[in-house]
Design goal:
211 residues, eleven-stranded mixed sheet, disordered N terminus
Length: 211
Amino acid sequence: MTRPRHLPHVKPHPWLIRSKENRTMPQNILLTIEPMTAESFAPFGEVWQAAKKPDDHRIMEKTGFSCDGQTTVSVIWQPCADPCFHELERHFGVTQSFIQLAGGRAVVCAAPPSATDDPTDVPAPESVRAFLIDPAIGYSFRRGTWHSLNRFALDGDGATFVIINSDPNPTQMINYETSTLSIFTDLDNCQPQTAVHPTAFNTRFTVDVPT
């Protein structure tokens, strides 16, 4: 597939400048885990599952996956680690999708989509939610949906996922601890433009894992 020549959502923004360090101590937001269902995840994307299961014939249901570039399929190993983070990202050219292959419980965090033509339009920290991934289903983020960079494996050594992505992969990130914005024309193959968001968020997130 021919790569797109024009990426309108990642044009340089006139105020993009070099980031400055924020030395203020950040607040910590504790995120309560909720089940990932078609209803709960609807503001952020779709879940992939067989909605109907007749006992006399096969059913094939289409997903809403789409991308502007070449579709890529990779396998991710996510080691078990503390479920703490301070960055979210969003992708402009793909409904990035995941299917868990192995491992125990895992969590992914998401926040609602925002205006793709305004780099400063980022989610309020209080809008971030934590979802317990059901290993029996896949899930797909709507274009522009903000989400944690990692899936947080809670049990054992970690978890394995299939990721369905796009090449190139225009992406924006927000660091809520330093209020730094980063814009990539292609996430894995270019250096970002960076800027300081007008709001000093000074925020970190921790997933509240039940004991």
